[in-house]
Each structure stands twice: as C-alpha cells, then as structure tokens.
Design brief:
Layout (H helix, E strand, L loop, with lengths): L1 H15 L25 E7 L4 E8 L5 E9 L6 E4 L2 E5 L5 E9 L2 E9 L5 E10 L6 E8 L3 E8 L5 E4 L6 E4 L5 E9 L3 E8 L4 E7 L7 E6 L8 E7 L3 E8 L4 E7 L9 E6 L8 E7 L9
Parallel strand pairs: 5-21
Antiparallel strand pairs: 1-2, 1-21, 2-3, 4-6, 5-6, 6-7, 7-8, 9-10, 10-11, 11-12, 13-14, 14-15, 15-16, 17-18, 18-19, 19-20
Protein name: DUF4374 domain-containing protein
Keywords: Signal
Length: about 300
C-alpha cells in the first residue's frame, strides 16, 4: 500500500521542492471538484489555455445544462502544453490545498501542482519526468483504493502503442494496434482492471478494457460505429454508482456536448445526449479535474 500511497503523494511532494516554473504564478481559484449524485451530476472540466493558464469549467447536467468557468494560475509558456492527465485536488491537515497531475509540454513529461500553503500563499511548480514525448495522444493515471490498492500510468503514443506502467515496480507493458485512436478518457478504475472510452479517426466509439494481470491482453469492444470523429477530447466523470457523465469537446468549433453514458457493455451501452454545453471550449488542452478522495470510476 505504501507504494500506491506514494503514487498519490509523490507528484505534489516532489514538485513542491522544485523551483521549475514555466510561467508567472497567479492566484488559484476556488473549485468544487466533488460530483453530486443527489441532484444533477456534474463534472469539472480542466483545461490549459493558449496563454498557458489553468482553468476549470464545472458542467452540471441540469435542465438546462449549466457551465461555470474559473481561471487559475498561469503555469506554462504560451502554446507549449499539449496533453494532460487527470488532475486531482486534495486538502492537507493544516488547510493547505494542492491540485496535481501530469502534462506534456513541448515533448517533456512533467509532474505539476498548484494550490496554496497553510498560510494561503499561492504555490505551483513543475518537475520533469523525462523527454521524448512528442506526438503522444493521451496520458492518464488510474487509482483504486479499495481492499486491493492498485493503479497504473498510461501513455498512448502517436503510432498506436499504448504503454502501461506499474507505479510500484516500474514494470512496463506495451500494447500495439491503437493507431486509429483519436482520443480516450478513463471511465473505470477497479481492483482488477481499468477501462478507457476511446474515439477513432473514423468516428467510432470503443471501450478498451485493460486487466490488471499483465499476462492478459486488453479487450476492445465497439460501442458505436460512427459520428464521434469531430471530438478532440473526451472528459469523463463518475455519475451515480456505475454510470458516466461525458463531456465531448470539439475545440475547432469551440463546442462541447454532454452525454449520460450507462454502464458500458459494448453496442448495448445506453448513451443519452443531454445537449450542448454553454460557453466556449477552444482551449488547446482538456482533462478531468477531480477530488483525490472521490470514489473510483466504474463506468464499465
């Protein structure tokens, strides 16, 4: 368990001692990152603007759909951030708050953080975790904290190779055959598997089920055959006990659409279009912003 706890803490603690900054620090906003299932589900859609600023848009599946955007610190040089993992927020015992995650900036993979120390002073930083990440399509980190504690780090390379790294052993699994994937979002993180929802360049929608057992191959199931090709980003959050609230973003038109996705089961998966999200969604990078203590995703 110690290794997986380190997975949660190492990004924030490691970069806290780093003075590496790619931009000028500004005050971070206050975020509501825990989804609500007692009324309408909501999702915090994180983004990085063309200027290098962090932003979060809270999208609520009410009728009508609502969206509230808050702008946070300036962390990156303009135009250099390419893709980001899920960013998770946590509050310490002394009142300090930290939001942390991974981001690829101009071919370098960084662990980053921003927040406030116990006195309320804004903090942020970045630490390099390696170079050579040009052309990657997606990165993310899963975490399951039940009786079995496990997680994995995923990297989808532009040529269709999907890497899965065990954060405890650093063992790397390599899966080929995903060159047609355009983007993907994590929808399940369990004791025995992780699942991504992925779109293809041709517009199909698939689930990619990746067993925790490295001896087992991923299982790919087609969910829909067409109409998903215009979306550059999928951002997914848990809704209820086993469903997903999905924001699909077409940054070329600045549009986002909200979907309620039932527990994934191939072509039998129920998907309900909830409508267009108000506001402009033309930032270069989008990702899930969630709470560290939120229940694990269970969309498949």
């Amino acid at each position: 368990m110690g290794g997986m706890n380190n997975l949660l803490l190492k990004k924030a603690s490691a970069v806290a001692g780093s003075a590496v900054l790619l931009g000028v620090l500004a005050a971070a906003p206050s975020h509501a990152v825990v989804t609500s299932t007692t009324a309408a589900c909501s999702i915090s859609v994180g983004s990085i603007s063309a200027a290098g600023d962090i932003a979060n848009t809270t999208v609520t599946a009410s009728s009508p759909i609502t969206a509230k955007r808050a702008v946070g610190p300036h962390m990156f040089a303009p135009g250099l951030a390419k893709i980001a993992s899920t960013w998770r927020s946590t509050v310490g015992v002394a009142g300090e708050d930290t939001t942390y995650g991974d981001v690829i900036v101009n071919g370098t993979l960084y662990a980053g953080f921003y927040g406030h120390d116990s006195t309320g002073k804004p903090t942020s930083g970045l630490k390099s975790n390696g170079v050579g990440y040009q052309g990657y399509k997606a990165i993310d980190t899963s975490f399951y904290g039940g009786r079995t504690v496990r997680g994995a780090q995923y990297r989808l390379r532009g040529d269709g190779v999907l890497y899965r790294t065990n954060p405890d052993t650093r063992e790397v699994s390599r899966y080929t055959g995903y060159a047609a994937v355009k983007t993907m979002a994590l929808i399940s993180e369990t004791a025995t598997y992780d699942t991504f929802l992925a779109t293809t360049n041709g517009g199909a929608l698939y689930t990619i089920h990746i067993p925790a057992n490295i001896k087992l191959a991923p299982v790919v199931k087609k969910v829909r055959t067409s109409t998903w090709q215009s979306f550059e980003f999928l951002v997914a959050e848990k809704c209820g006990t086993q469903s997903t609230l999905l924001t699909a973003i077409d940054k070329n038109t600045g549009s986002a659409y909200l979907y309620a996705v039932g527990h994934a089961n191939g072509a039998a998966t129920v998907i309900k279009g909830l409508g267009k999200v108000p506001g402009n969604f033309s930032d270069p990078v989008y990702y899930l912003h969630t709470g560290e203590g939120n229940p694990p995703l269970f969309g498949e």
